[in-house]
Every structure is written in structure tokens, then in C-alpha cells.
Design goal:
Helices cover 43% and strands 20% of the residues. It has 279 residues and is α/β, with parallel strands linked by helices. The protein has an 8-stranded mixed barrel, surrounded by 6 helices. β8, α10 and β9 form a beta-alpha-beta unit. The longest helix is centred in the N-terminal third of the chain and has 17 residues. Bound molecules: ligand C2E and calcium ion (3 copies). One calcium ion binds next to loops. Ligand C2E binds next to β2, α2 and β6.
Length: 279
């Protein structure tokens, strides 16, 4: 039986109205011209600590909305995925990322491999990859420059189309990274079902370094496991020198995280890493 005056019979509270409004504003903005509404991206370096070399960058979306202010990518990506506007958003992002990659071309600089997050609905889309390949061709982006990050944090159910898409990517030379490894629903089945080149070890494992021995043992075993599977390994969310040294000492030298660098605006990245200052 329901309480007569408890919160259980109050289906619509003012705070819910605020949430609903917020969601509606985000939804509406997502179907418009997101670039004019404060959508942009940053890039975070990936460093090989054994060599000091910059091995890649991950593209991360940002949104400074005109009325809502900064919105977390978790929030707007989830809404975009649910409402079907993720392809618009990702295509808009790709265009900007490709011109960013190309802006150093005439200087003859080699741009590092650039990783782009692709959600489950796009992975199983028949049109998304066609558009991606077309955009790459139009912008003269070679396949070796691009990495696709697939995440298991949202349940990625097995799909024949996803498999076919990933095989096509790989055969062209685009690499596939499995994101947030260790946190998802069935990490081993993705690894067996899909062609994976790189594993991104989730930051939850990294943050336990120096805190508890059992977690360190799990981490060491995971590093050996990934080696055995033959994938490239990267540790995410490396925040301290202690974490970085531990990972390096245990056979995982490629790191992404605040200890090495935070996500940077493209112009700042170019100045700092590529030596281009005229952006
Ligand atoms: P992710 O793909 O796992 O990206 C890594 C997240 O960790 C980023 O959060 C990054 O800013 C953050 N990070 C980097 N280094 C550190 C560190 O040392 N410590 C900690 N605590 N965090 C660190 P961000 O940018 O807020 O993005 C959150 C998530 O939103 C991403 O997680 C990704 O799943 C999603 N996302 C962001 N941009 C895009 C996009 O363009 N497309 C799609 N589909 N998803 C995106
Ligand atoms: Ca990612
Ligand atoms: Ca991740
Ligand atoms: Ca930590």
C-alpha cells in the first residue's frame, strides 16, 4: 500500500521538472548546430614512458552550452545515444578532428595516432562507417592515423554488423581499442568476439596502486593477461609518479592520465607537442 502523504505518491516534483527541462534543452540543442552552441574537443596525450615518445592522442568532446554552461560528456553523449543524435555529433566532431590532424601537414610533421570514441549504436550502424571512410578520403586522412575506441561500459551486445564494421576498419589499417577494460559486463567476450588491437586498462585499477596489495596483484596479472592475448596495453587515469613507475616496472609503459598531461585544447597541444604555434 502506498503512503498517502509520502514522497511515493508525488510523481512530479519541482526538482524533476528542472531535470526534465535540462534534458529537453540538451536534446533540442543536440539536434541543432552543436558547433554554434559551444561544442568543441580536447586531446589527451598517450605517452610511452620507456621511450618518452608521444604514441597517440585521445579525442574527448566538450560542451560549454550557452545557457546550461559546461555539460559533462557522460551526460550529453548518453542523451545523444538515446535520442539518435550521436551520428550528427560524431560526424561534426570528425570533421573538426580531421582538419586538426591536417593543419600540420604542410610542415611535414607526423601527427600521432588519433583515437576517437565510438558508441555502440554507431558501431552497429551501416551508414556511420561509410561516412567515416568517405570523410577520411575527402580529408586525405590515412587509416593508420586513426584508432576507434569501443567501450564496454554501456553494454555492447554482440552484433554481426559491429563485427563486420570492425573487420573492415582493421583491414583498412584503422586500429581498434577496447576502452575501460575490466569494468564492463563481459570483457572477455568482447575480446573473443571482436578484433581488438589495444586494451585500455581502466583507471579504477590504476588508482589502487600503492593502496592495496591484492589490487596490485590483480593489476600485474591483467598486464600479463593482455600480453598473452597479444594486444597493445595502455593504462588510463595515471595520476601520480608512483602509479606511473609501478606500471612501467610491471610491463605497462604506455600511459594516459593527468600525471603526464591533461586533455588539452588543440592549439595548446600543437604548441606543446608538435611545435606549431601559429594556430
Ligand atoms: P573515457 O573514454 O574513458 O575517457 C577518459 C576520461 O578520463 C576523460 O573524461 C578524461 O578527461 C578522464 N581522465 C584523463 N586522465 C585522467 C586522470 O588521470 N584521472 C582521472 N580521474 N580522469 C582522467 P571525460 O573527458 O570527462 O569523458 C568521460 C567519458 O565520456 C569518456 O570516458 C567517454 O566514454 C565519453 N566521451 C567523451 N568524449 C566522447 C566522444 O566524443 N564520443 C563518445 N562516444 N564518448 C565520449
Ligand atoms: Ca575512451
Ligand atoms: Ca576509458
Ligand atoms: Ca591513485
Amino acid at each position: 500500500a502506498k503512503k498517502q502523504n509520502g514522497s511515493s505518491c508525488c510523481f512530479f516534483q519541482p526538482s524533476m521538472r528542472v531535470d526534465l527541462n535540462r534534458r529537453l534543452v540538451i536534446e533540442k540543442s543536440l539536434s541543432g548546430n552543436v558547433k554554434e552552441l559551444g561544442f568543441y574537443f580536447v586531446v589527451q596525450p598517450q605517452i610511452n614512458c620507456d621511450t618518452g615518445e608521444l604514441v597517440g592522442v585521445e579525442v574527448l568532446s566538450r560542451w560549454n552550452h550557452p545557457t546550461l554552461g559546461p555539460i559533462s560528456p557522460i551526460e550529453f553523449i548518453t542523451i545523444a545515444e538515446e535520442t539518435g543524435t550521436i551520428s550528427n555529433l560524431t560526424n561534426c566532431l570528425l570533421k573538426d578532428v580531421f582538419s586538426f590532424i591536417n593543419c600540420t601537414k604542410n610542415q611535414g610533421d607526423i601527427f600521432p595516432k588519433t583515437a576517437i570514441n565510438v558508441t555502440a549504436s554507431l558501431l552497429s550502424s551501416k551508414t556511420f562507417f561509410k561516412e567515416l571512410f568517405l570523410l577520411m578520403e575527402q580529408n586525405q586522412i590515412s587509416s593508420e592515423q586513426i584508432e576507434i575506441e569501443i567501450t564496454e561500459s554501456v553494454e555492447l551486445t554482440y552484433s554481426e554488423i559491429t563485427l563486420a564494421n570492425l573487420i573492415t576498419c582493421q583491414s583498412k589499417g584503422i586500429s581498434i581499442a577496447l576502452d575501460d577494460f575490466g569494468t564492463g559486463f563481459s570483457m572477455l567476450s568482447y575480446l573473443m568476439d571482436y578484433p581488438i588491437d589495444k586494451i585500455k586498462l581502466d583507471k579504477s585499477f590504476v588508482s589502487k596502486i600503492g593502496q592495496d596489495e591484492k589490487s596490485e596483484a590483480v593489476l600485474k596479472s591483467l598486464i600479463q593477461f593482455v600480453k598473452g592475448v597479444g594486444c597493445t596495453l595502455l593504462a588510463e587515469g595515471v595520476e601520480t609518479q608512483e602509479e606511473s613507475l609501478f606500471l612501467q616496472a610491471n610491463g605497462c609503459p604506455i600511459h594516459q592520465g593527468y600525471f603526464h598531461d591533461k586533455p588539452l585544447l588543440p592549439k595548446d597541444f600543437l604548441t606543446k607537442y608538435i611545435g606549431v604555434s601559429n594556430q
